[in-house]
Amino acid sequence: MRDLRYSMKRVAPEIVRRFCERYKTDLTCANIFARRSITAPGEVRYYLENGLNWLHSPFLFKDMEEAVERILAIKEEGGRIVIFGDRDADGVTSSALLGLELEGMGLDVVTMLPEGDEPYGISMDAVKRIIDVGASLVITVDNGVGAVDEVAALNDAGIDVIVTDHHIAGEELPDAIAIIDPKVPGCGYPFEHLAGCGVASKLVWALRFAQTPLYKSHVILLHAEPGPGEDTTTIVQAVELYNLVETDRVVEELPNGAVDFSRSRLVRLLTRGLPIMVLDKDVELRQLRKAFGPGVDISLVDMRKELDAVIPRSRGRSLFELTTESRAALYADGHPEIEALLSLFTSCCIYKHPSLSRDYVKMLDLVAIGTVADMMPLVDENRILVRLGLKELGRMSRPSLIQLLSAQGLANHPITAHDIAWNISPVINSAGRLGCPSVALSLLKATEPQDCYDLTHKLLDLNKERQRLGDDAWQGARGKAKESLESFGSKFILLDIDTPRGLTGALATRTLKENPQVPGVVVLSAEEDGRVSASMRSRGSLNCRDFLSLLKDHMLDFGGHKYAGGFSMSGASKEAFKAGLEEEVMKMDYSIEEEELAVDSLVSDADMNLNLIRAVELFEPYGEANPPLAFMHSGGKVVDIITLGDVSKGNIKVNVQIGNTVWPCLWWGARLDPGFDISIGDRLTMIFRMNRNYYRGVGNVQLTILQAKKMEGDA
């Protein structure tokens, strides 16, 4: 067999040791964090934490308050809101969760999606439909940041627009009253990789927040503590919050009794007439009098009573004691007590209101589906949104999804991001690809059992039809793909075939899968109303969006990321586009190099226990920018080899004894390797993944072999 193809990053033992000490993880996990270069506190916390209080505030978007105010005004005016979404899984889930929220608020809501042969996103035809239904306000979800002309047309008709999107903006932004898009420069939001449904969920949370007494709250959090040394100084820390977002902070170390309060840098915060919140008023006053003298007069509001009512574990415990157990203090770089106080205060505010906490979590099942379906990086707050959403999916608490989850074999066991990618999002996407995304939207919003049943089976039928059409299209495209590959010198495939627009993405993916040696594939649809749509897929070093940008002069619009892109153009531009593409392909020097598998950790016989699956589950959910963990072990003994299913596929199950335990290992396509020479009794060096396999609700740990080689000296 071939040698193992892998890489394993070297990490400094000192980094691993410090990580273990700070975050109280085991050595295996610390090594994995270090090898994946996840060591900054702001990154680590999204792997170790699950609470809603770790999410970024929606009010970090500079336009969020304007969006909220306009929606609340529409409620008072009795106007009609049109939600305009998109036809893919992200767009449909975004439309569903925002529609359900606004309808629950008692608003008059109409939800529209691109139907039939309409292009993705809002179009001029959609603008006409919106005007015809008498909209006062349009909210786009998962689209709109590039709709400059469409928004202008709506404005001319006297209709306001709020754009919620997550795509990259062009040089000109639409003239909307609010643009909520984390990729818009200057938007104020610290994380740019939210999916469209993630952005929509931020608007929902902000709307709920605006219906609590917390909205537009302006407070100061204050804490004074002894400075270092012989209690001769006091460190006073003050944080200003507006809508629970930090807007200012002052930290000052003062020699006790030597500085007049009026000359302190704290004056600008503490003399503005804002409520000054502390934990244990008498304790704080004593320390402040040490700093400023007994005559200091600062009005403080004690949050102790409310904190104890909402967070019972805080009862009778000082801020210092709470800080020793505070997760926020764990990630703080200096001054952990003010970070603990800030975390306690914001958590108290959020968890006091079920609409911002317990009830909000219930919508994250849709956020998880849309985020995974749109291949958003599972880093930062996406990890918490998806992790909580997966738990909600596993509870099957949304009646409209029970039938779908059951039909896809996902009932009665935890659901993973892999389950979404392979068993949920393709079904939801099928409706949009066949021109009827409203079927998927209606299912997600359904509540009556019969409606849920009927719509689920209609959606499953659409998925089967999509698969059939995709298979038929591939049969017709296979020969043309081979011809195109040869004409481009094995560097590219361009398919210009008579296929519906909704199948171009699936066909491009299928073509690339069947031709793994080619860097890029573009599939053009049949012309519809003078317009051609297309999809691109790539692998290796070829970036779809960068490549398409080279040809943008031929396009009406385009977008995408490294491995997938889409665009449209007029039929009259097609030949010029094809000529331009050929020119760029001939110039390009992209290659497909066989990537080495990154190994996260070497494991010994002693490491092969259930603690390893706990490490695997710590790094879940897996997906874009967070691949499943890969481990390497040497010395396991093959005790059995079983062929699985069709012999021609080469799949086997290998039982490997490591120490006193026999581990079941799946090895897909093993026998297809011409050099396969593994026999019972051999000892292996293997690179593998570990997961739980569920059968009839019972989970068993199993390994999946990625690469393996017989150790030298074995018979």
General description of the model:
The protein is of the alpha/beta class and 715 residues long. Among the domains are: 58-210, inorganic pyrophosphatase (n-terminal core); 218-352, Nucleotidyltransferase, domain 5; 488-587, Diaminopimelate Epimerase, Chain A, domain 1, CATH 3.10.310; 600-710, Beta Barrel (OB fold (Dihydrolipoamide Acetyltransferase, E2P)), CATH 2.40.50.460. It has 25 helices and 23 strands. The chain has a five-stranded parallel beta sheet, with helices on both faces. It has a five-stranded mixed beta sheet with strand order 9-8-7-10-11, sandwiched between helices. Strand 19 (631-643) and strand 20 (652-658) form a beta hairpin. The model has no long low-confidence stretch (mean pLDDT 93).
What's the shape? globular
Residue-averaged pLDDT, rounded? 93
CATH class of the domain at 58-210: Alpha Beta
Question: Radius of gyration from the CA trace?
Answer: 29 Å
Number of strand elements:
23
List low-confidence stretches: none
So how many helices? 25
- First and last CA, distance: 14 Å
At the fold tier of CATH, the topology name of the domain at 58-210 is inorganic pyrophosphatase (n-terminal core)
Give the class from helix and strand content and strand pairing.
alpha/beta
Strand order of the largest sheet: 3-2-4-5-6
Percentage of residues in strands: 15-25%
Main beta-sheet annotation: 5 strands, parallel
CATH architecture of the domain at 58-210: Alpha-Beta Complex
Helix percentage range: 25-40%
